[in-house]
Every structure is written in C-alpha cells, then in structure tokens.
Amino acid sequence: MSEFWLTLVNSFTAAFGEAEALTGWEAVAVLLALAYLVFAMKGSIWCWAAAFISTAIYTVLFWKVSLLMESVLNIYYMAMAVYGYWMWTRGGKEHDGVNIVSWRLSTHLKIIGITTLVALVIGHFMATQTQAAFPYLDAATTCFAVMTTYLVAKKVLENWIYWFVIDAVSIYLYVSKGLMLTAVLFVFYLGMVVFGYYMWRNKMKVQKTAQQIDLTAGTA
C-alpha cells in the first residue's frame, strides 16, 4: 500500500513539474502572440518577427498535448511570417509593400466553401487514422487559419472577421486541453480583432482618399 501512495505522489509531482514548464513557455508564447496582434492592428512589420518566435514555441506545445493539426498549423505560421514580412515590405506593383484591400462577398463565399470542404476531409482522416483530440474542430480551425493568415499577408480587410470566428472556436479547444493562458489570450483576441477591423477599415479609407488625390493631381 505504501508503494502505491509513493507512486501516486511521484506521479503528481512529475505532472506538476511538467505543467510548470509548459505554463512558462506558454506565457512567453502568449506575450509574443499578443505583441503580434497589436503590431498587426497598427500595420507594423514587427508583427511578423513576434509571430515567428511565438509560433515556434506553440509548435512544440501543441504537439505535446496532441493537438496535431494545431502544431502543423504553427509550422505554416512560421513560413507565413517570412512571407508576410516580404509582402508588407517588398510586395505590390511598386515593390514598396501592399495596401489594405477589401474582397467581394462572392469571393469570400467561394473561399468559405472550399475551406470547409477541405476541413471535413482532413477532419475525417484525423478522426479515423490518428489519436488527435477534437479532430473536426481542430481541422476546421487549422484550415481556416491557414487561409486567413494568407489574407493577413495580402492585407485583406475581412481577415479580422475570419479571425473572430476562429478565435471563438479555439477558446473551447484550449480550455478543453488545459491551455488556460492561451484561452485567456484568445478571449482578449475577440475584442482586439474588432478594433483591428475598424482600424484597418479607417486606414483603407485614408489610402483610397490619398490615391484619388494623387490621380487628380496627375491629371491636372
């Protein structure tokens, strides 16, 4: 009996130690992810540096808690951080960065339809062939986040609307897997993405006004 209790105590001690290490790295990733969002709202290229480091940490964290697609997603985020930096600094026709744009509703409906179909296929594969937790939700948040990150790099205004839905679903996933700091971060995200949307929309209006002034001056 004494051996049983000793084993039980040792198991709890080991689990607590692992949780402490996980929470420490998670805290760093959370702060950097928060910095990414703040910089992105302001349109600062520093958002991509914060994103690269934060996602590198999350790649390992998600793998440890069996959110396999979330882990793969963060590898993609690392690559997109490099692409986003290039687009914001060298993209566009003049190679001086891209401006904020808005895409038509019909375009977004096509994107949603295709992404949903891909998510269902991947979710089915994960549910039947892997030990992934919440396979369909995991696949859905992953597929839509992949697509939405590309929209951020292209500075498509509606990316903030996609993020709102993705973040709301992600909160449930993270709470279920014990990533409480990340869940709290995503609660803040829900409010911040709303501000991000309006900040980008206002900047887009300013850009359009400036372009009209330039066109008028060019024809004068």
TrEMBL record:
Q: How does it sit in the membrane?
A: Multi-pass membrane protein
- State what protein this is by name: Nicotinamide riboside transporter PnuC
Family annotation (InterPro entries): NMN_transpt_PnuC (IPR006419)
Give GO cellular component annotations, separated by semicolons: plasma membrane
Example GO molecular function: nicotinamide riboside transmembrane transporter activity
Q: What role does it play?
A: Required for nicotinamide riboside transport across the inner membrane.
Which Pfam families does the protein's record reference? NMN_transporter
Compartment annotation: Cell membrane
Q: What family does this belong to?
A: Belongs to the nicotinamide ribonucleoside (NR) uptake permease (TC 4.B.1) family.
Q: Transmembrane ranges?
A: 22-39, 46-65, 71-88, 109-127, 133-153, 181-200
User: What UniProt keywords are attached to this protein's entry?
Assistant: Cell membrane, Membrane, Transmembrane, Transmembrane helix, Transport
